[in-house]
């Protein structure tokens, strides 16, 4: 029996730009919504605030869950967040910086919302249309659930 992993991620928009993590891995260049694994004793909302601070140094507050993406062994809860302060940067002692190598790079940055349709989201691709729709028209009051095929 496979144990399901749970993550929490945050949608942060400021001045028409979305906070994303830009990634480079061997043969891949893509973007993802910042966030990470929910630790024991931690709520999903606490995870979002902690992970965004760790990955980008931004301070945010959580409004509400708007999306959820599931594959065969992971559930990603995605929250709409309110920007409070900071500029995206990767601190030298962050987990992402410690994992960085010449062919495994992380770069948090603001991306204009109108550029989202042209970006590569690889694994996160099934989420892209719902993310764009929600950012353009507002997210529905109910959580939208998206299924993703397991990728290696």
What does this structure look like?
The structure is a single chain. The chain has about 150 residues and is of the alpha+beta class. It has helices at about 45-55, 95-100, 130-135, and strands spanning about 5-15, 15-25, 30, 35, 60-70, 75-85, 105-110, 145. The protein has one domain: Nucleoside Triphosphate Pyrophosphohydrolase (Alpha-Beta Complex).
List keywords for this structure.
Nucleoside Triphosphate Pyrophosphohydrolase; single chain; globular; 152 residues; alpha+beta; 3 helices; eight-stranded mixed sheet
The helix content is 10-25%
N-to-C terminal Cα separation, in Å? 19 Å
From the alpha carbons, calculate the radius of gyration and give it in angstroms: 15 Å
Biggest sheet descriptor: 8 strands, mixed
Q: If you average the pLDDT, what whole number results?
A: 91
Query: What is the domain tally?
Result: 1
pLDDT < 50 runs, ≥5 residues: none
Instruction: Please provide the count of β strands.
Output: 8
The CATH homologous superfamily is termed Nucleoside Triphosphate Pyrophosphohydrolase
List the helices and strands in order.
EEEEHEEHEHE
Approximately what portion of the residues adopt beta-strand conformation? 35-45%
What is the CATH first-level class name?
Answer: Alpha Beta
Question: Helix/strand/pairing class, anyone?
Answer: alpha+beta
What name does CATH use for the topology? Nucleoside Triphosphate Pyrophosphohydrolase
CATH architecture: Alpha-Beta Complex
Query: How many helices?
Result: 3
Give the overall shape, derived from the CA principal axes.
globular
């Amino acid at each position: 029996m496979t144990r399901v992993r749970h993550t929490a991620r945050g949608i942060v928009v400021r001045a028409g730009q979305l906070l994303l993590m830009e990634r480079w891995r061997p043969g891949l260049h893509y973007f993802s919504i910042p966030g990470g694994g929910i630790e024991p004793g931690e709520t999903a909302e606490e995870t979002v605030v902690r992970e965004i601070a760790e990955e980008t140094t931004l301070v945010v507050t959580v409004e509400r869950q708007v999306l959820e993406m599931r594959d065969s062994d992971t559930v990603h809860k995605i929250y709409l967040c309110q920007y409070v302060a900071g500029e995206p940067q990767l601190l030298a002692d962050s987990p992402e910086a410690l994992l960085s190598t010449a062919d495994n790079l992380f770069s948090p940055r603001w991306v204009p919302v109108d550029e989202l349709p042209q970006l590569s989201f690889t694994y996160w691709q099934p989420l892209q249309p719902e993310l764009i729709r929600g950012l353009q028209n507002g997210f529905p009051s109910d959580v939208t659930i998206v299924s993703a095929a397991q990728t290696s």
